[in-house]
Amino acid sequence: MVERKPWLDWLAHAILLVGVAVVAFPLYVTFVAATQTAEAIIHAPMPLLPGGHLIDNMSAALGGGTGAGSSAPVARMMWVSFVTAMVITVGKIAISLLSAFAIVYFRFPLRQLFFWAIFVTLMLPVEVRIAPTYQVVADLHMLNSYAGLTVPLIASATATFLFRQFFLTVPDELVEASRIDGASPLRFFKDVLLPLSTTSIAALFVIQFIYGWNQYLWPLLVTTDESMYPVVIGIKRMISGGEAANDWNIVMATALLAMLPPAAVVILMQRWFVKGLVDTEK
Amino acid sequence: MAQEKRVVFRSGWLPWLLLAPQAAVIGVFFFWPAAQALLQSLQQQDAFGLSTEWVGLANFQALWADASYLDSFKTTALFSVLVAGLGLSISLLLAVMANRVVRGAAVYKTLLIWPYAVAPAIAGVLWLFMFAPSIGIVAYGLRALGLDWNHLLNSRHAMTLIVMAAVWKQISYNFLFFLAGLQSIPRSLIEAAAIDGASPWRRFWDVTFPLLSPTSFFLLVINIVYAFFDTFGIVDAATQGGPGKETAILVYKVYHDGFKALDLGGSAAQSVVLMVIVVTLTVLQFRFVEKKVQY
Q1: Which residue of A99, A158, A179, B268 has the lowest C-beta tally within 10 Å?
Q2: Taking the domains of chain A in order of start, what are their residue ranges?
Q3: CB neighbours (10 Å) of residue A271?
């Protein structure tokens, strides 16, 4: 602190508390709604204190409701979301590690071309090529499958860059030592580079897991079968009944369930999360 | 940092094998579709998809002549200015305050960053629920205050709703970067200004804020990219582009025209326009990164 000005400290705390309250308010309303009956919610104003139906609503959602919109069981959607997010995360990290290793530790023709090709994918997000990408996935018969949900999202320019930058800082002596000891390139990759990269991998894991879990536009296109809906899509389908016709208590219980895994990852792995954000944007 | 390794491995086939998975994915799912988008933007399909003909730039001309597309541009511009402007100023205020408090800074940080984990579509559903005209708790409160909230009929209300949801979700990200930027400003500069008698207000605008400009500019670009491309879920969940097409941002329109209206040529032309926008924003971002390195 540069100087003592108690009133400024109070002001700072007051502003932060207001900020935290505004940020938390939607979550609080969601929680309260998830503890009420559907009737209590549609009679405005809904109660602002938690009711006693949280467990009922959660189990109704997980087991499949009888709402006006979609009524697929959320337990299945959570599983689809989890598998999708994990495959995207692990896939992105794996293929980016391999590409970065090839680009940094080998000399071969077209190396620069590959590097720039990966770079250019930064400028081709799903949103700018949706119709033709959908066409490709449909032609490959990958609609309504885990492959269709994950493989097209698995390439990652940011992860490849991050690993490339990191590999460039690894001392050359380690390569020389490994070569003198007769280690093959893959052995060097497995026993030297991978253990050194764990911090970057953890940081990327957090960011990519959230990315995978929160996908919306792509699953919206490639899944038409309720049993392949990720939970984010499932919620959207649940509210198709119209304002008062939806089972909002079930929808909000589902929203809580859908937010829980990525929020837990952010809060429990906060240190890696911050590192991941800062590193991937460099 | 060296851009190349001095010591490398020698193998004729191994690097190709290592690159194969990434190359296959970007080839099949990025470059092929992007090329298709470029081609389709120059073609026109008949209603049954039986024949295609080359139409040159007709799809683009049709776009420029289409009032709803130009409106969508204006909507997107307004939306991204509001999201970036509000998101940046609120986060900066919070970050400055969090940088000032000694006690509880870590707790505030944790309580402010979690919305990053919320999917845009879910953010849209939460805000829709609070502001639903007949049942929403906030809509009820607003009506009690004399404001008849109805985002289903009033386009300004609809825009306000998606802006609030988008800003709410992005505050966490901006906050973290501003806080990191503030913490990297040398204390000695602030102390020197204080010794010269500058008030906290003066110190912020004359010392802190200019030193924060690289962070601010970087965040500005990121926020515009976010508003353009990552808010599809919010719009689709909260307003579906309505009322009318008043909140149909460009990405929503591409999706709507391609998958609901089945106008492939028009949608492809829109995709190409979006590509140009992304390329511009990415170049801006990287030029800035180069500048930061020279500091």
Answers
A1: A179
A2: 6-280
A3: 12
**What 8-state DSSP symbol labels residue B51?**
-
Q: Is the predicted pLDDT of residue A62 greater than 90, yes or no?
A: no
CB within 8 Å: A233 and B121: yes
- Report ipTM (2 d.p.): 0.88
Window B:5-24, CB contacts with A under 8 Å: 5-12, 14-16, 18-19, 21-23
Chain B positions in Cβ-Cβ contact with residue A255 (cut-off 8 Å): 122, 125-126
Domain locations in chain B as residue ranges: 74-294
Q: Among A4, A36, A103, A130, pick the best mutation site for testing chain B contact (most B Cβ within 10 A).
A: A130
pLDDT tens digits, residue range A228-245?
A: 889 998 888 888 766 666
User: Best residue in B6, B9, B72, B128 to probe A by mutation, most A CBs within 10 Å?
Assistant: B9
pTM for the full predicted model: 0.88
| For chain B, counts of helices (H) and of strands (E) | 15, 2
Architecture of domain A6-280: Orthogonal Bundle (1.10)
CATH superfamily, with its number, for domain B74-294: MetI-like (1.10.3720.10)
Residues sharing a CB contact under 8 Å with residue A88, sequence separation 6 or more, in sequence order: A150, A153, A154, A208, A211, A212, A215
